[in-house]
């Protein structure tokens, strides 16, 4: 049942993103930015954690909304400990490994594969 819920929720988030591309004719940048902001807002309202409890990997691993959730979650945790400085550094502390991995794997991909002209 966990697989079904993860597939359903993750797929629904992907369908929303694809609909933004196809129906509303948004660019990839607008779509990604919108989904990150939605994830951040859901975390701020306390609604993303129940979604994670329900869908597990469908809400944490695949969708871009999880990145917005991580930014706000990290900022809120560190703000409780260190105040305003924690608010600014918390989001980088939580998301730094994912961002670093994206940069490293993107560079490796750029070195291995030849772009089309």
Automatic annotation (TrEMBL):
The keyword Repressor does not apply. The chain crosses the membrane at residues 31-48, 54-72, 84-113. Keywords: Membrane, Transmembrane, Transmembrane helix. Pfam families: SpoVAC_SpoVAEB. It comes from the Bacteria. InterPro entries: Spore_V_AE, SpoVA. NCBIfam families: spore_V_AE (TIGR02839). PANTHER family: STAGE V SPORULATION PROTEIN AC-RELATED, STAGE V SPORULATION PROTEIN AEB. This is Stage V sporulation protein AE.
């Amino acid at each position: 049942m966990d697989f079904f819920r993860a597939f359903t929720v993750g797929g629904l988030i992907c369908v929303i993103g694809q609909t933004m591309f196809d129906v509303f004719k948004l660019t990839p940048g607008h779509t990604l930015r919108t989904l990150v902001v939605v994830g951040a807002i859901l975390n701020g309202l306390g609604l993303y954690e129940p979604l994670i409890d329900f869908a597990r990997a469908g809400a944490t691993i695949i969708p871009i909304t999880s990145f917005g959730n991580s930014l706000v979650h990290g900022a809120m945790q560190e703000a409780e400990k260190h105040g305003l400085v924690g608010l600014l550094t918390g989001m980088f502390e939580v998301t730094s490994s994912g961002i670093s991995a994206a940069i490293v794997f993107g560079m490796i991909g750029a070195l291995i594969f030849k772009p089309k002209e």
